[in-house]
Amino acid sequence: MVGQLQARKSAGIILKLIQQGKIAGRAILMVGQPGTGKTAIANGIAQSLGADVPFTAMAGSEIFSLEMSKTEALTQAFRKSIGVRIREETELIEGEVVEIQVDSPAGGIGAKTGKIVLKTTEMETVYDLGQKMIESLTKEKVQPGDVITIDKASGRVARLGRSFSRAKDFDAMGPDARFVQCPEGELQKRKETVHTVTLHEIDVINSRTQGFLALFSGDTGEIKPEVREQINAKVAEWKEEGKADIVPGVLFLDEVHMLDIECFSFLNRALEDQMAPIVIMATNRGITRIRGTNYQSPHGVPIDLLDRALIISTSPYTEKEINQILKIRCEEEDVEMNDEALEALTKIGIETSLRYSIHLITVANLSAKKRKSSEVSIEDIQKAYSLFLDEQRSVQYLKEYQDQYMYNEIAV
After folding, report:
1. Per CATH, which fold does 319-396 belong to?
2. 88-193 CATH, one of 2.170.120.40, 3.30.565.10, 2.40.50.360, 2.60.40.10
């Protein structure tokens, strides 16, 4: 990422607080002009937290387009951002395969039976095989010398690799051969498995007749408060028993100024909950009206919510930073541009906006290809600039020809 050193330092401190679990129930507000990297910084925080920490992103305007109440939409967004790390113990049989014997039924009709001999460094045992287990072993291509695990509850077979004792076998020296030690101790073991789900996923599974399949349909609808209360009680019980941990995630609300006073009141109350996620809000507004009221406030956010928030400000990019960003963008789009053209594009970015100058890269590249050139020149930039208006020139054009437009409300 280019520039915004102060904002990135602030985001780094926020990241450490999140990782240490010391910022739950607070909000972060990112403010700055359009195109100054607010969303990029929020996405950077999400990537740094890792895949195990839930991250939910939504725009303030989305809440009004969903087929549910505003508070329900925010509640679901909150619960999507709260993870539950569940620990479960499973019984496994883990050992090195000594021998596999499969007996086919007489006449080829009926289920197959067989035996498998497994060993560890301390013991060796013979297990009877049924049709299902034989199919699982065949599917995994298990053979003598392999180290495998068998889940006693589901019968699932997993091939861990080839035993080091068979390292000299000619049939085990393929490019994908992976060698592991022969297991120690007992053949039957208890292992802890950990998986993370969100509270919203648990809500959906327990509130729909089709269970977890409802997650794939996308249409979760409104969920009854009674269901959530029961789930909260169960999760609290798991936490006390040491079976689960709460993982506060991140909820990123872009265009937060689009929320109304009802949504802001909900956010204030929801942030006080002990299981609240970290809420990162972003806005590009100055002093403006709070939606649903006649009152004005900084960034269109009520003062009591601003008081809860740590505010990070982004600043406009310098000429050097704009030049560097445009260079990176040209590399990403595989566009060759000479220094003179890049200088002109940088000047356009300063006078108009960074986003507008980025849009011109693709147009200028098409212009260069049309004249069969592999490099974008200043003529291509000038042509793209003349074809597409920026915001300032568009406003100037409207002022000149406003009387020719329909439903014009500005007095001539």
Report:
1. Helicase, Ruva Protein; domain 3 (1.10.8)
2. 2.40.50.360
Cβ contact 326:345 at 8 Å: yes
> Can you give the residue ranges of every domain in the chain?
5-81+249-313, 88-193, 319-396
**For the domain with range 5-81+249-313, which CATH number is right: 1.10.3720.10, 3.40.50.300, 2.60.120.1440, 1.10.10.10?**
3.40.50.300
pLDDT of residue 47: 80
Bridge partners (DSSP) listed for residue 125: 118
Q: Which residues contact 216 (CB under 8 A, 6 or more apart)?
A: none
Interatomic CA distance for residues 324 and 56, integer angstroms: 30
The rounded distance, in Å, linking the Cα atoms of 173 and 2 is: 48
Which residue, among 76, 57, 83, has the nearest Cα to 225 in the 3D structure? Answer: 76
Indicate the helix (H) or strand (E) that contains 244. Answer: strand 244-248
Asked if residue 345 lies in contact with residue 365, where contact means CB atoms within 8 angstroms, the answer is no
Q: Return d(Cα 278, Cα 25) in angstroms, integer.
A: 6
pLDDT single digits (tens) 198-218? 888 888 888 765 444 444 445
Q: How far is CA 77 from the centre of its chain?
A: 13
pLDDT computed for residue 213 by the predictor: 44
Condensed to tens digits (0 to 9), the pLDDT of residues 117-158 reads 999 988 889 988 888 888 888 888 888 888 888 887 777 888
Position 383, amino acid: K
Beta strands in 37-168 (DSSP E): 55-59, 82-103, 113-119, 124-129, 146-151, 157-163
Whole-model pTM?
A: 0.67
